Amino acid sequence: MQQLWLVGTASAVPFIGFGFMDNAIMILAGEIIELKIGAIFSISTMAAAAIGNLISDVAGVGMGSYVEKVARKIGFKEPNLSPEQMDLRSTQIASNAGAAFGVSLGCFLGMFPLLFYSHHDDDDKCKCVAAEEE
């Protein structure tokens, strides 16, 4: 049981970093695209979000191995299991559950850019508070 816990934890940690990075980039890129490109080309909020997601996914592909390396450097490694143990259904479930939990937590934490946005009822769009002060 302890090994399954370690498998789940080892799977979760890199995905926390990935989810954080993915969501933060998507929010920031989507907002910039909506405010800058969307204003010029009249694209919808959903189109801006989709382009932000594209940018975030491309960044994730490039940075995914980096996140895993950092997680390993700080000491999070898969437990030393035999190939037979790795093939067990319980090991697969623990690994997938850890990854799902990690990416969920990371995505939640990656919403931090939203703390810097304020909602205005008059135009029904979110704008960066810093941009309003200029």
**What's the end-to-end separation, in Å?**
56 Å
* Average pLDDT: 83
Catalogue the unreliable spans.
none
Biggest sheet layout:
2 strands, antiparallel
Keywords: Membrane, Transmembrane, Transmembrane helix
Subcellular location: Membrane
Protein name: Transmembrane protein 65
Membrane topology: Multi-pass membrane protein
Please tell me about this protein's structure.
The chain is mainly alpha-helical and 134 residues long. The protein has one domain (2-133). Helices cover 74% and strands 6% of the residues. It has helices at residues 2-41, 45-73, 83-86, 89-109, 129-133; strands spanning 117-120, 125-128. It has a two-stranded antiparallel sheet with strand order 1-2. Helix 1 packs antiparallel against helix 2 (45-73) and helix 1 (2-41) packs across helix 4. The chain is elongated, with a radius of gyration of 19 Å. The termini are far apart.
List the SSEs and their pairings.
Elements: H1 2-41, H2 45-73, H3 83-86, H4 89-109, E1 117-120, E2 125-128, H5 129-133
Antiparallel strand pairs: 1-2
Helix pairs in contact: 1-2, 1-4
Précis, in short:
The chain is mainly alpha-helical and 134 residues long.
Key traits:
134 residues, single chain, 74% helix, transmembrane, elongated, two-stranded antiparallel sheet, mainly alpha, transmembrane helix
